[in-house]
User: Fold this.
Amino acid sequence: MPHQEIGKLCQVHSRSTLARYFRQYQEGGLNRLRQLKFRKPESVLALYRAEIEAEITEKPPATLKEARYRIAEVTGVHRSLTAVHRF
Assistant:
């Protein structure tokens, strides 16, 4: 079956994506295609995890605003309240 037809049937409109899928299939069949490998960006704060944990374990912050302030003091990294909460 022509690659263009396969792309239509699979609803893959990008040639490069379809080519990548073909390579993955050749590498390991359907099991290889089923593997999801999404890149998950990591927070810059992760580099300072040990220092942050030591700081807040010693004296836990009462509020998220206090946590944000103290994290910025320890790391020099300023983040939003939402980003600090997620971290």
